[in-house]
Design a protein that fits this description.
One of its GO terms (biological process) is carotenoid biosynthetic process. The protein has 501 residues and is an alpha/beta fold. It contains 15 helices and 19 strands. The chain folds into three domains: 206 residues, FAD/NAD(P)-binding domain (3-Layer(bba) Sandwich), CATH 3.50.50; 108 residues, no CATH class; 126 residues, Guanine Nucleotide Dissociation Inhibitor, domain 2 (2-Layer Sandwich), CATH 3.30.519. The protein has a seven-stranded mixed β-sheet. The chain is globular.
Length: 501
């Protein structure tokens, strides 16, 4: 983006940021750079929120996000502070970007070379290579216009859209309709439709409930590329934290917040062990629903319990972190395993009667293919992620059953049998997301990007009940994903500056 954000001056203001996910880290940086006295209170033992790391038996796992997408957003973020990402971590572009195993025995690689991808599409459907060019042209247009005028600009009110400039910018964007309908205009073959829609999982949606506007993710995937940052996504957290400390941010881990209350001239923020902080302003990067329902008194809440119960939440996940003896040659750094018809899996997540999938679609990450430091010599580091419905019962017996199903499925459909080579294993699921991150219903991501939960229909950055209380992160605009949360922090800081004025 051109220019710096309009944060203004916050000299002399003290701010407590609750939670150190990417939204909280970003907000803290912008506020500290503007002169505020910023303290970040983190519930857990390490910074980064869902971008935590697990160290065990010589293995290092990124517990949460593992895809480095939209490198331009990271450049813009660090650039706002006169810095570059390369001052904190290096990037390696992955080739292939990812591999897909279809469960009918088919296998494809998506690569940085667009000509090869065009030939791949053409091999499935005559004319699909040219259709891919058209699809990516539309995706690039949507990305360029959408990012500049609808992502970096916080249009959180209806009147923000009743504007001739907005109407001009919006012309040509797919603001109505679903991704499924949009993709069907370009490709008939179901596998090609899946290839250009797999990234919807990162937005917490399904093809039939995610706005067509998110075709921009194909520009991110095919044109901007997929990267691996030095030391993984945890290394990005380290970089942002290092910059934040240079800007003067004070971090406190092991400080779970139990209450946020207004007081004359500011706030009282209390932690579970009785410590108190008295800032002028508060920003919550904790789960939005948890903040409102658990940390605020009823009269300070914008929404009641019925509102939060009526929301569509992004999937939770069943995760297996595995340390494995030997190589896993047939798997790439990023690997997807997809049923040829994935509707049944999405139905188990978003139906009125959610359940565990019997024929799951899932993701395998093998960072040891790129980074030797994540596993002991002679071993592979691997985690498996299966999107599942939030709120499911995930007791020990259910986890064991699904763990066995998943390992069998991996062996059957990738040819990689892990079952007798596992030397370290840990699962993470619905109840863990709820306990570790205070995540509503154990969602792994927050609010899904459905037609009714996008843009101004997401909860706002500023409380309309409590002066000086703000929100940032994946529940707010622009939404889910590490790049979006970085931008959310900027939008929150800009909102705070407007409110002060």
């Amino acid at each position: 983006m051109d220019g710096s954000p309009a944060i203004g001056s916050a000299d002399g203001r003290s701010v407590v940021v609750v939670g150190s996910g990417f939204g909280g880290l970003s907000t803290a940086c912008y506020l500290a750079d503007a002169g505020a006295d910023v303290t970040v209170l983190e519930k857990n033992e390490q910074l980064g929120g869902r971008a935590s790391r697990l160290h065990a038996d010589g293995f290092r796992f990124d517990m949460g996000p593992s895809w480095y997408l939209m490198p331009d957003v990271f450049e813009d973020f660090f650039g706002d502070f006169g810095r570059t990402p390369s001052q904190y971590y290096e990037l390696e572009r992955l080739d292939p970007h990812y591999r897909i195993f279809f469960k009918d025995g088919d296998q494809v690689d998506l690569v940085p070379d667009i000509d090869q991808n065009r030939q791949l599409f053409e091999s499935y459907e005559p004319g699909a290579g040219e259709a891919l060019d058209d699809y990516l042209d539309q995706a690039a247009y949507t990305y360029d216009v959408g990012m500049e005028h609808f992502v970096y600009e916080d249009r959180s009110r209806l009147r923000d859209y009743v504007d001739s400039d907005v109407l001009r910018y919006a012309r040509g964007l797919s603001l109505l309709g679903t991704m499924q309908g949009h993709v069907e205009d370009y490709f008939d073959h179901p596998k090609l439709q899946q290839i250009v829609q797999y990234s919807l999982v990162f937005l917490g949606g399904a093809p039939n409930n995610t706005p067509a506007l998110y075709n921009l993710m194909s520009h991110v995937d095919f044109n901007l590329g997929v990267y691996y940052p030095e030391n993984g996504l945890g290394g990005v957290v380290d970089g942002v934290v290092a910059m934040a400390e240079e800007l003067g941010v004070d971090f406190r881990t092991g400080h779970p917040v139990s209450e946020i209350r207004g007081r004359e001239g500011g706030f009282a923020v209390r932690t579970e062990d009785g410590r108190e902080f008295f800032p002028d302003e508060v920003v919550s990067n904790a789960d939005y629903a948890h903040t409102e329902q658990e940390l605020l008194v009823p009269e300070d809440r914008q929404y009641d319990a019925d509102y939060w119960d009526s929301r569509t939440y992004a999937p939770s996940a069943f995760l297996l972190y595995l340390g494995v003896e030997g190589d896993v040659a047939d798997l790439e750094h990023h690997t997807l395993v997809l049923p040829t018809d994935w509707d049944d899996h999405f139905d188990t997540i978003f139906s009125d009667d959610p359940s565990w999938p019997e024929d799951p679609a899932y993701y395998l990450c093998v960072p040891s293919k790129t980074d030797d430091s994540v596993a002991p010599e002679g071993h592979s580091n691997l985690f498996a992620l299966v999107p599942i419905a939030p709120g499911l019962d995930d007791g020990p017996e259910r986890r064991q059953q699904f763990r066995d199903l998943l390992l069998d499925d991996i062996a059957d459909h990738t040819g990689v049998d892990l079952r007798d080579r596992i030397v370290f294993e840990k699962s993470f699921c619905v109840s863990d997301f709820a306990e570790r991150y205070n995540s509503t219903k154990g969602t792994a991501l927050g609010l899904a990007h459905t037609l009714r939960q996008t843009s101004l229909l997401r909860p706002p950055h500023v409380s309309d009940e409590v002066d000086g209380l703000y929100f940032t992160g994946s529940y707010t605009t622009p939404g889910i994903g590490v790049p979006m949360c970085l931008i959310s922090g900027r939008l929150t800081a800009e909102t705070m500056a407007r409110e002060r004025r």
